[in-house]
From TrEMBL:
One protein family per Pfam: Ldh_1_N
Active site, UniProt feature: H187
Residues that bind substrate: R92, R98, N131, R162
UniProt similarity note: Belongs to the LDH/MDH superfamily. MDH type 2 family.
NCBIfam families according to UniProt: MalateDH-SF1, MDH_euk_cyt, PRK05442.1
EC number: 1.1.1.37
Positions that bind NAD(+): D42, N105, V129, G130, N131
Protein name: Malate dehydrogenase
Alphabetized HAMAP family for the sequence: Malate_dehydrog_2
Gene: mdh1
Organism: Pundamilia nyererei
């Protein structure tokens, strides 16, 4: 058997983690024969709940799960980890300004970035899920200067999967028959779900999504707003935020980092914008189409961008620039 890898999940007593931990522990993410040590970090008041989660993981009797370590201490949580899934963040409370939310999260991700810098392996792969995910990811990376910027990404795979599923349902095919949708920009309601480069397999023939759907008004209207607003729609219906679908997206994202993307396919991920060919400001974590090989992502360059797409890509970039500048002000205080 291989050496165990150490995987950290933060916000581990929360509902996304509850949907996520079983999939990781049974081998859906890092492989069926890869032993795992799971480290679960949460705040001190959540430790009793965490003990319950540990009991349940033990009771699953999973062969590759070698150890589960619950903790509220960063020096324990981040020690020698191979992968960090940062789910925990300050949620937006009623009446809270976005600025207040940013300030609270800058403090959290500055601490966690510092802990990554000090305790984690330099090869650690870091996925930020807690919102505002793009900016939280940027702050964590800036607070961990000894870890390569390329090792940080944020989750836009949930948006990507939502877009895929909408196209598949519209075409009456299963979602694995749709590929190369793109989420550009921020994991917020300004994100741009783009199907100009997507393909749908219709009865064995690969068809451009616009040709397959034959409804440009829907693709430029309701399709985009449905994907942008889906998180809010789930909260309205469930009175809780997306957990099952978020956990599935986290698994997809991390599995693709570990094992790579399929030939001729790309996925969406929030990554450093430096050196991109789409004129997106450099010092941002921005969602791009990426291909992954040997645990290294590369932005898919040179896709033709029409005026409609350009405007939407720029709008979400502008929001990210504003978020970044506000967050960096707090970081320097």
């Amino acid at each position: 058997m291989a050496e165990p890898i150490r995987v950290l999940v933060t916000g581990a007593a929360g509902q996304i983690a509850y949907s996520l931990l079983y999939s990781i522990a049974k081998g859906d993410v890092f492989g069926k024969d890869q032993p795992i040590i799971l480290i679960l970090l949460d705040i001190p008041p959540m430790l009793p709940v965490l003990d319950g989660v540990v009991m349940e993981l033990q009771d699953c009797a999973l062969p590759i799960l070698k150890e589960v370590i619950p903790t509220d201490k960063v020096e324990v949580a981040f020690k020698d980890i191979d992968a960090a899934i940062l789910v925990g963040s300050m949620p937006r409370k009623e009446g809270m300004e976005r600025k207040d939310l940013l300030k609270a999260n800058v403090a959290i991700f500055k601490t966690q970035g510092g802990a990554l810098d000090k305790y984690a392996k330099k090869t650690v792969k870091v996925l930020v899920v807690g919102n505002p995910a793009n900016t939280n990811c940027l702050i964590a990376s800036k607070s961990a200067p000894s870890i390569p910027k390329e090792n940080f990404s944020c989750l836009t795979r949930l948006d990507h999967n939502r877009a895929c599923s909408q196209v598949a349902m519209r075409c009456g095919v299963s979602s694995d028959q749709v590929k190369n949708v793109i989420i550009w920009g921020n994991h917020s309601s300004t994100q741009y779900p783009d199907v100009h480069h997507a393909k749908v397999n219709l009865q064995g023939a690969e068809t451009e999504a616009y040709q397959a759907i034959k409804d440009d008004a829907w693709l430029r209207g309701d399709f985009i707003s449905t994907v942008q607003q889906r998180g809010a729609a789930v909260i309205k219906a469930r009175k809780l935020s997306s957990a099952m679908s978020a956990a599935k997206a986290i698994c997809d994202h991390m599995r693709d980092i570990w094992f790579g993307t399929k030939e001729g396919e790309f996925v969406s991920m929030g990554v450093y914008a430096s050196g991109n060919s789409y004129n997106i400001p450099e010092d941002l974590i921005y969602s791009f189409p990426v291909q992954i090989k040997n645990k290294t992502w590369k932005v898919v360059d040179g896709l033709p961008i029409n005026d409609f797409s350009r405007a939407k890509m720029d709008a979400t970039a502008a929001e990210l620039v504003e978020e970044r500048d506000t967050a960096l002000d707090f970081l320097s205080q």
